[in-house]
UniProtKB/TrEMBL annotation:
PROSITE patterns: PROTEIN_KINASE_DOM. It comes from Nephila pilipes. The gene is TRIB2. Belongs to the protein kinase superfamily. CAMK Ser/Thr protein kinase family. Tribbles subfamily. SUPFAM superfamilies: Protein kinase-like (PK-like). PANTHER family: SER/THR PROTEIN KINASE-TRB, TRIBBLES. GO terms for molecular function: ATP binding; mitogen-activated protein kinase kinase binding; protein kinase activity. Residues 24-309 form the Protein kinase domain. This is Tribbles homolog 2. Residues 23-54 are annotated as: Disordered.
Length: 340
């Protein structure tokens, strides 16, 4: 497949009214990108561009790119610009869906912590959306280090919250928000970006009420598990932000069980333990995001104004990662009686 038409982003015009919303019931299976039900993170994702000895199949796109293998744990595929030998990643979608996919990206494409689209190529049956390459994902980074110190986690989580706030402001609800969604933009692993807007819902109005059951078990909010049909998508995203911050600092998920039913039972009850070694500001931010009542949670914009970010002098007095103890099991005694 070497024949494709290039679409320049500034000149692309989409009929957004023809793009509808799709609702799915799709809880991700345990062990995929944060769905692991155990307290600890799943095994790390291999490097994005490993030196693999296995033979690779390649497809030429518009005589410009070579489309290679799919990345582990991702829907994206490796691709190489033939002339420059520059490495990129590519999302392949059916032609009938590319407007839906691009709609959200073009609303936030200039944000520094959202992966920008490099090029869009429309073929006979598929559209190829080319993004900048990445240097590993946040989930693997945290898993390899077991947990992050507050001084290491703070700048990374601020970038995460900034990307989520930009999406919410642009009318985009991410739904499946998790550590794996964020990848590093540099080999030094200091700059994060939201990899893609897969599973996101683009709103036509400010109303963000959703009625689907979607996301990773470890990150899902209690209202999504409620029998009530509707919930605020933005508030559910902010619950997931709380799970992300907790996991970055503690090295395990706040809610866990060996079975989905047990995990969901604990999420509905909202029982979790915050380790004593965390600063009072970090504890406050976690608790402000993991509130059972969605209306009482901080918004993504309010997260960026939290005292944990506003005054960072106290960070120098905090212990480093090696000084922090990562508990192997829950500290508190949990009530296993049925949820009513």
């Amino acid at each position: 497949m070497s024949c494709a038409t290039r679409i320049a982003k500034p000149n692309l015009r989409l009929n957004l009214r023809d793009v509808g919303h799709k609702h799915h019931t799709n809880f991700e299976k345990p062990g995929v990108g944060g769905g692991n039900l155990s307290p600890n993170l799943q095994p790390a994702t291999p490097p994005t561009f490993p030196n693999s000895k296995e033979p690779l199949t390649a497809t030429k796109i518009a005589d410009k790119y070579l489309l290679l293998n799919r990345l582990d744990g991702s829907l994206l595929r490796r691709c190489i610009h033939i002339e420059s030998q520059q490495e990129y990643v590519c999302k392949v979608v059916p032609n009938e869906r590319y407007r839906d996919v691009l709609r959200g990206h073009f609303r936030v494409d200039s944000h520094p912590h959202i992966n920008p689209i490099e090029e869009v190529l429309v073929g006979k049956s598929s559209t190829y959306i080319v993004f900048q390459r990445c240097y590993g994902d946040l989930h693997s980074y945290v898993r390899n280090k077991r947990n992050l110190s507050e001084r290491d986690a703070l700048p990374l989580f601020k970038q995460v919250a900034s990307a989520v706030a930009a999406c919410h402001s642009a009318g985009i609800v991410l739904r499946d928000l998790k550590l794996r969604k964020f990848v590093f933009n540099d080999p030094q692993k200091t700059q994060l970006k939201l990899e893609t807007l897969d599973d996101a819902v683009v709103l036509d109005e400010d109303d963000d009420w959703l009625n689907d059951k979607h996301g990773c078990p470890a990150y899902v909010s209690p209202e999504i598990l409620s029998p009530t049909s509707n919930y605020s998508g933005r508030a559910a995203d902010c619950w997931s932000l709380g799970v992300m911050l907790y996991t970055m600092l503690v090295g395990r998920y706040p809610f866990h069980d060996t079975e989905p039913s047990g995990l969901f039972h604990k999420i509905r009850r909202g029982c979790y333990t915050v380790p004593d070694h965390l600063s009072s500001r970090a504890k406050c931010l976690i608790r402000s995001l993991l509130r059972m009542d969605p209306s009482e949670r901080l918004t993504a914009e309010e997260v960026l104004d939290h005292p944990w970010f506003r005054n960072t002098k106290f960070i120098d007095e905090l212990p480093g990662t090696s000084d922090q103890m990562v508990p192997d099991r829950e500290i508190c005694l949990e009530d296993d009686s049925p949820f009513v």
